[in-house]
Design goal:
Elements (H helix, E strand, L loop, with lengths): L2 H32 L7 H4 L7 H6 L1 E5 L14 H4 L6 H10 L21 H10 L4 E7 L25 H11 L3 E6 L37 H4 L5 H19 L3 E4 L8 H17 L5 E4 L10 E5 L11 E6 L1 E2 L9 E2 L2 H13 L2 E7 L9 H17 L13 E2 L21 E6 L2 E6 L8 E4 L9 E6 L8 E4 L2 E5 L10 E7 L2
Parallel strand pairs: 1-2, 1-10, 2-3, 3-4, 4-5, 5-6, 6-7, 7-10
Antiparallel strand pairs: 8-9, 11-12, 12-13, 13-18, 14-17, 15-18, 16-17
Helix pairs in contact: 6-7, 6-12, 9-10, 11-12
């Protein structure tokens, strides 16, 4: 081959490489700018959609209060705090069972947390069968224990206790099911802020009460971290750093915050929100942040109502965190439980008003979810198999419901309501209205849906989910009259599906 041919081939190759460079470079730039970058300020972050489509459609999720706080299995999830308050039942039990607090502190429970029966895949299977679309676990509770392999917090499940990366195992199992992964953070309350004011040592704004005769006052460089007895600025840095560890290592789709975020300076909260949203969008995730009592802007986060809800349809989408248990969020001996019927009624009420439910379960210290709790979850799942089309991806209707049982106020920690067969909750999907009747009114009886009174809409068909026979109906001025079947459809709520003109 001639020297001229070699030179020509050389230039052709160079031109080929250059053309590849320019053909690829614009696409790379496009990918870079296609992911919005939010600055660390609330005005910038306000343009983020705080309730993405997946969350609005999911409606129902499950998470677990489980970790070091499960080990004592006594009283409730505030045992780690109350065991340090002299005169309480928890303090009496602690001293009688484990000895004086000067000799056995809460941190001494750590070797007893072994998680020997924890199986992340079994948890994920159960959550899926229960009908949950998102699921997860408490990442860190008020007690300062981290359920992940933390390089910041020495009190973590990899270095101590079970020596397992609990978040890693569960996150992988949840995501493998196509479900969204939840982590909850309760750490803010852990910071002790009353060390120098003995009149406030027992205030619960700080989870652990400062006591000179107990480990809560320890100056040890490791022990003091658990009890939040460290300088504020170090606590704030740890708070943000631990969140970044979880974001980077486990990619949660929803981060839930408990109360007392007002103890964290605004700059740290802004930095967290910007980091979480930007990093998640770069991975193609649309994530959710929750808050309580206005501790984060609603323009950036979804408001959560612990054991509560709204009493009307709202424009903003919101969340209720409820628990299958009664009296404690974490496992205790002789734990009381709600019924599947009660939880289904709550779910229907919440969804009818533009909310979602995240239901807590309480595993044993070993990691086993007790059989009675599993049965409740499976019963909910069976109900959702039949009636889920009235829940998932539904929207609100003209009214949320009707019936004699009234919720007088909105907010957290509401008194229990017992719904009846005369109580109805409505949802909508396309040209169908779903009337969720919160009890069985009886066989072969007439049900009148008063919300259809004096309507201009035409009803073309009525059916009952899970029932394959025709349903007799008539639209009258006082409402839609429906005849129930001559057999019970469900011992919980049942759903009437109503086809209407759009």
């Amino acid at each position: 081959m001639s020297r001229t041919s070699n030179i020509l081939q050389h230039y052709v190759y160079i031109l080929f490489v250059v053309s590849l460079f320019f053909s690829c470079k614009p696409n790379e730039k496009h990918n870079e700018v296609s992911v919005p970058h939010y600055a660390s300020n609330w005005d910038s972050l306000a343009s983020y959609e705080e309730a993405p489509k997946w969350f609005k459609e999911a409606k129902f999720g499950i998470y677990a209060h489980w970790g070091l706080l499960s080990v004592p299995s006594y009283a409730n999830d505030w045992y780690p705090r109350n065991m340090h308050i002299e005169g309480t039942d928890e303090n009496r039990h602690q001293v009688e069972t484990y000895g004086p607090l000067s000799e056995f502190g809460y941190h001494d429970f750590v070797p007893m947390f072994k998680a020997e029966n924890f199986n992340a895949q079994e948890w994920a299977d159960l959550f899926e069968k229960a009908g949950a679309k998102f699921g997860g676990i408490v990442a860190i509770h008020h007690d300062g224990w981290s359920n992940w392999d933390s390089k910041i917090n020495p009190w973590n499940s990899m270095d101590k206790g079970p020596h397992r990366d609990i978040l890693g195992e569960l996150g992988e199992a949840i995501h493998s099911k196509g479900m969204k992964f939840v982590t909850s953070f309760h750490k803010a309350r852990n910071l002790q802020i009353f060390k120098n004011d003995s009149t406030k040592w027992l205030e619960d704004t700080s989870y652990f009460p400062y006591n000179p005769n107990m480990a809560t006052s320890s100056e040890d460089s490791i022990i003091s971290v658990m009890y939040g007895n460290i300088p504020k600025e170090q606590f704030y840095k740890n708070w943000l750093g631990e969140l970044k560890e979880v974001i980077d290592g486990y990619h949660p789709d929803l981060i839930y915050f408990d109360s007392k975020l007002d103890k964290i300076p605004d700059a740290y909260k802004r930095d967290f929100a910007a980091y979480y949203i930007n990093e998640s969008l770069a991975r193609g995730q649309e994530v959710v942040i929750t808050h309580k009592e206005g501790e984060l802007p609603k323009s950036v986060s979804v408001e959560d109502f612990e054991k509560g809800r709204m009493n009307k349809i709202t424009k903003d989408y919101w969340l209720t965190d409820e628990t299958v248990s009664v009296g404690s969020w974490s496992y205790v001996n002789n734990l009381g439980l709600k019924t599947a019927d009660e939880i289904v009624d709550l779910l229907a009420d919440i969804v009818s008003k533009n909310g979602a439910m995240m239901l807590n379960v309480s595993p044993k210290p070993s990691g086993e979810i007790p059989q009675d709790q599993q049965e409740i979850l499976l019963s909910i799942g069976e109900w959702l198999k039949v009636n889920g089309e009235a829940i998932y991806a539904s929207s609100t209707w003209d009214v949320f419901g009707e019936g004699p049982t009234r919720q007088e106020k909105s907010g957290m920690f509401l008194d229990k309501l017992s719904y009846t067969a005369q109580d109805v909750r409505y949802t909508r999907k396309d040209n169908h209205i779903y009337a969720i009747v919160l009890g069985w009114p009886g066989n072969d009886v007439e049900v009148v849906l008063e919300s259809f009174s004096n309507t201009n809409r035409q009803v073309s068909n009525v059916s009952i989910l899970g029932y394959d026979k025709e349903v007799s109906f008539e639209l009258k001025p006082d409402g839609l009259h429906i005849q129930t079947p001559n057999q019970m459809i469900d011992d919980k709520a049942f759903v009437i599906k109503i086809a209407i003109d759009k």
